[in-house]
Structure formats: structure tokens, C-alpha cells
Amino acid sequence: MNPVVHFEMPYEDKNRMAKFYNDAFGWQTQMLGDDMGNYVVVHTTETDEQNMVKRPGAINGGFFKKMPEHTAPTVVIAVEDIQAAMQKVEAGGGVVIGGSKPGQPDDIPGVGLYIAFEDTEGNRIALLQPKRM
Questions:
Q1: Domain 79-133 in CATH: superfamily?
Q2: What is the three-class DSSP state of 84?
Q3: What is the pTM of this model?
Q4: Less packed terminus of the chain by CB within 10 Å, N or C?
């Protein structure tokens, strides 16, 4: 079974978003720079030395700059083989969107391979082949 391991949501103002989630829920944020698309990593639960969640079933997430083509939250599913998973998505009627290049996974430094797809209902989902798998 391939678990949901991460969530992503868009932001318009990353400082306002960070303050809101910290004040409302105690989430901790890590602001990444231009080289990482100004992504904001969010810890919603306690993590260990390897930045992995301590409590089974809990997940962390992140926020990305809102784009016209991507305005809704995304769940991220961990897979052992991203190429095989992409083939299964397409065989099942989904559409692989891609990362920064259409149809090609992005290699996120220290994290793994990542690619977005649309399911048969038009929902944007992502696949992640973590470096640890």
C-alpha cells in the first residue's frame, strides 16, 4: 500500500500564512529560498533527527506560491518506483502532469523524485519516491 506522506497548499503571502498556522495550530515553518521555489516546509507534528515524523500516521506538509494553474491543496503519495507508479496512473485513466518539465519527475535535493498528476476526477495529486525507499 502506498501511504499519503505529505500535503501541499498554496499561499498568496507566505509570511501571513506562516503566522496564521503558527498562531492557530502551533505549526513550525521553514522558509526556503528562490532556488527551491520559495517553498515553505511545515512541521505539524514532532520529528526525529532525520526529519521523519515520530507518530505513525502523522504527516507534515508545505506551502507553495499560488499559481493560476494550481490553486488547490495537493496530497502526496509515497511510492517505491515513481516510473512504475506513473504508468499505473496513466493506465488507470489519470494524467501525468509533471514537475518543472512535462512528464518528467523533479529531483528534490535530499527528498527524492516528485511528479504531479490528475486523477480521474480532476484532482491534482503528487507522487514521491523518497530517497529513503
A1: 2,3-Dihydroxybiphenyl 1,2-Dioxygenase, domain 1 (3.10.180.10)
A2: helix
A3: 0.83
A4: N
